Amino acid sequence: MPETAGVAGRTVLIAGATSTSGLAATRALLAAGADVVAVGRDDARLAPLRALGARTHVCDLGDEDAVAALVDTLHRDDSGGDGTRIDGLLHLVGGWRGGGGLAGQTDADYRALETGLTALRHVSRALWGDFVASPAARTAIVSSSAVARPLAGGANYAAVKAAEEAWARAMAQGFEKAGREAGEPPHAASVIFRVRALASLEDALAAAFTGLWDAEASVVNDTVVALGDA
């Protein structure tokens, strides 16, 4: 039967955890009884997450080999036990660059924004086996209302977010297919959160992500959830 017992006891990886959203999600997940693995590029900025009780790792998620090494470390023995398997992913890698109309959308800006998509691809591929094997896996990305209404001055940003959404939806189809092949409903779900701007919505995002484990995977898989006025 599908499992909906909540996030307590699950292990969740937060990618790009050093943002305000990462801090809020870490607090919410720990308060709900989850184990949090917080990943970022700067150890000093990970310190507040360690202080809350998260396990932290420094990793450039844009480097495929580094991601593979991180997952290998988790699987071998990260916490003094038998190793860690990941039951969830909150993908927060990304940023904003824009302005200048369509003609002002530079390749340099696009490449900088594309690091979010690259990290999502690397992490989801490396952890795919964990997600499919988990009795209750949930993954989520944070996208933008710009995907539905792209503007010339944010064309790079909207294009990258649209690509991230396509990847997240492909994950959803993969989860559904894995369940179908096992002859049972899927245990994993991929969700897209859309915002107009994430500032002031960090706690709402944390609560919504943590709450994904309270619903059956088949209910939330391949859904787009608007936060705020998105």
Descriptive report:
This protein is an alpha/beta fold and 230 residues long. It has one domain (11-226): NAD(P)-binding Rossmann-like Domain (Rossmann fold, 3-Layer(aba) Sandwich), CATH 3.40.50.720. The chain has 8 helices and 7 strands. A 7-stranded parallel sheet has the order 3-2-1-4-5-6-7, sandwiched between helices. Helix 4 packs parallel to helix 6 (155-182). The longest helix is centred in the last third of the chain and has 28 residues, at 155-182.
Measured by DSSP, the beta-strand proportion falls in 15-25%
Q: Rg to the nearest angstrom?
A: 17 Å
- Give the end-to-end Cα distance, rounded to a whole number of Å: 34 Å
Helical residue percent? 40-55%
Q: Total number of β-strand segments?
A: 7
What is the C-level CATH assignment? Alpha Beta
At the fourth CATH level, what is the homologous superfamily? NAD(P)-binding Rossmann-like Domain
Q: What is this entry, summarized?
A:
45% of the residues lie in helices and 17% in strands. It has 230 residues and is of the alpha/beta class. The chain has one domain: 3-Layer(aba) Sandwich (Rossmann fold), CATH 3.40.50.
Write the layout of secondary structure elements.
Layout: E1 11-15, H1 20-31, E2 35-40, H2 43-52, E3 55-58, H3 64-77, E4 88-91, H4 107-126, H5 128-133, E5 137-144, H6 155-182, E6 188-195, H7 202-210, H8 217-220, E7 223-226
Parallel strand pairs: 1-2, 1-4, 2-3, 4-5, 5-6, 6-7
Helix pairs in contact: 1-7, 3-4, 4-6
